[in-house]
């Protein structure tokens, strides 16, 4: 008998993590993970961290990293967001093994293109006691919610349609009444093993009503499409944000209703804003393309993200590692359970580390060419610019401790490096500029 089965219950959480780690090593060959963003906004630091950890886990176990676009909420789809997230994955090196562009044997990889499968499976589920049609109108649901709030009760649906007779259902269908489809929640707690958090348990029936799994517009909700796709795409491990922990029992119930085996779950701590608020896809200053366009390197973003949530117990923070090295160092069982916060100063410092790394590892020409491109873009004409490689290399060396991005060398404070200064100074300025010149020569 396995030693894992003999440990006392009081030691379960600590020992569970050890058993899960052993189990993960045994099952490496069949690892398939997916990153399933919704195209409702451009990808930000939180989304990329989830993609990164999925990618590293897949590569560590010689598995597959799948990109799936979860666009069932059609009203919230933002034009261009799918292209943006695919471009940013490409830019950061997190290239999917399967996905909308890459293809693969389990496609299509866009949920709106899999509607027929969802309709087939929800029809199958309706033939079991686990699901039912809900004919309640939006008006009734809204009035019910307001009444609950007025009475200081949890604003949840009263599961009224769960108790309709077959005759009542047939009459409503004959009258052409619109309906959604709900999952019958089991009463009592439902537990599951989380690779990161250990044993978790939630009693959903105490805090919410039977959830909608298929909307009246003919589209599935996230929960239903998520489970169906993970099954048919043979996903073995689900790595996602901790906000989905409370929804996991719903997913487990769906797996059980279909008679399917659920994947293993690992929930990652959230990345919060500096003030502790949640990240939003509408925040431009946390978008990955914002950092790219402002002179940050992909290596900067990737290495910085490894410091929020950990999972790298043997890695030094003040260095830049490539994806291959990070793959070796990553340990999913060592990911933190506490949320992290964005530290802008630390991110900027990592970009300085990237400049060091490029310069000290034979990639100074990359920095020189980047700086040339920035200068031409800024000033247009090259006649007044000194674009000599030795001069640019000297300036990069001189500025490494003064800047965080090469783009900062184009700021007004460094304009004297590129343009002939205006000598129409006031007499009172002369001493200041002489002192400045001395400092420049000395430094």
TrEMBL record:
Its main location: mitochondrion. One of its GO terms (cellular component) is mitochondrion. SUPFAM superfamilies: Nucleotidylyl transferase. It is found in: Mitochondrion. InterPro entries: aa-tRNA-synth_I_CS (IPR001412), Glu-tRNA-ligase_bac/mito (IPR004527), Glu/Gln-tRNA-synth (IPR000924), Glu/Gln-tRNA-synth_Ib_cat-dom (IPR020058), GluQ/Sye (IPR049940), GluRS_core (IPR033910), Rossmann-like_a/b/a_fold (IPR014729). It comes from the Eukaryota. GO terms for biological process: glutamyl-tRNA aminoacylation. Residues 31-348 form the Glutamyl/glutaminyl-tRNA synthetase class Ib catalytic domain. Its EC number is 6.1.1.17, 6.1.1.24. It catalyses: tRNA(Glx) + L-glutamate + ATP = L-glutamyl-tRNA(Glx) + AMP + diphosphate; tRNA(Gln) + L-glutamate + ATP = L-glutamyl-tRNA(Gln) + AMP + diphosphate; tRNA(Glu) + L-glutamate + ATP = L-glutamyl-tRNA(Glu) + AMP + diphosphate. Keywords: Aminoacyl-tRNA synthetase, ATP-binding, Ligase, Nucleotide-binding, Protein biosynthesis. One of its GO terms (molecular function) is glutamate-tRNA ligase activity. Belongs to the class-I aminoacyl-tRNA synthetase family. Glutamate--tRNA ligase type 1 subfamily. This is Nondiscriminating glutamyl-tRNA synthetase EARS2, mitochondrial. It comes from Oppiella nova.
């Amino acid at each position: 008998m396995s030693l894992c089965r003999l440990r006392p219950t009081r030691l379960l959480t600590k020992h569970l993590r050890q058993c899960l780690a052993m189990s993960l090593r045994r099952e490496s060959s069949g690892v398939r993970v997916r990153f399933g963003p919704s195209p409702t906004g451009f990808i930000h630091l939180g989304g990329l961290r989830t993609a990164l950890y999925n990618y590293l886990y897949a590569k560590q176990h010689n598995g597959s990293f799948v990109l799936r676009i979860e666009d069932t909420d059609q009203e919230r789809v933002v034009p261009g967001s799918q292209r943006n997230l695919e471009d940013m994955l490409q830019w950061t090196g997190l290239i999917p093994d399967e996905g909308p562009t890459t293809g693969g044997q389990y496609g299509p990889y866009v949920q709106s293109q899999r509607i027929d499968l969802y309709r087939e499976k929800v029809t199958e589920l309706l033939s079991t006691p686990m699901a039912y049609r809900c004919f309640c109108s939006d008006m009734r649901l809204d009035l019910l919610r307001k009444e609950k709030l007025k009475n200081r009760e949890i604003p949840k649906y009263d599961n009224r349609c769960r108790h309709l007779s077959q005759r009542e259902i047939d009459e409503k269908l004959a009258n052409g009444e619109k309906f959604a489809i709900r999952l019958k929640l089991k009463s009592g707690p439902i537990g599951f093993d989380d690779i990161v958090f250990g044993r978790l348990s939630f009693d959903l029936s105490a805090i919410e009503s039977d959830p909608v799994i298929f909307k009246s517009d003919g589209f599935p909700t996230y929960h239903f499409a998520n489970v169906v796709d993970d099954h048919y795409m043979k996903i073995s491990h689900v790595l996602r944000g901790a906000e989905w922990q409370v929804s996991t029992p719903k997913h487990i119930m769906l797996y059980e209703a279909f008679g399917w085996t659920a994947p293993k779950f690992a929930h990652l701590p959230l990345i919060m804003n500096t003030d502790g608020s949640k990240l939003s896809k509408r925040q431009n200053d946390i978008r990955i393309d914002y950092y790219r366009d402002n002179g940050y390197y992909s290596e900067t973003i990737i290495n910085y993200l490894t410091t929020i949530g950990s999972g790298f117990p043997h890695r030094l923070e003040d260095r830049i590692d490539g994806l291959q090295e990070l793959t070796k160092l990553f340990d999913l069982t060592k990911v933190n359970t506490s949320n992290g916060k964005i530290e802008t100063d630390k991110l900027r410092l990592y970009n300085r580390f990237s400049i060091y790394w490029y310069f000290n590892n034979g990639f100074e020409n990359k920095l020189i060419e980047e700086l040339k491109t920035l200068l031409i873009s800024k000033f247009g004409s090259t006649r007044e610019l000194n674009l000599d490689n030795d001069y640019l290399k000297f300036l990069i060396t001189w500025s490494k401790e003064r800047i965080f991005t090469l783009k900062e060398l184009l700021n007004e404070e460094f304009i004297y490096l590129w343009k002939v200064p205006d000598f129409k100074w006031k007499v009172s300025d002369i001493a200041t500029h002489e002192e400045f010149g001395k400092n420049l020569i000395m430094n």
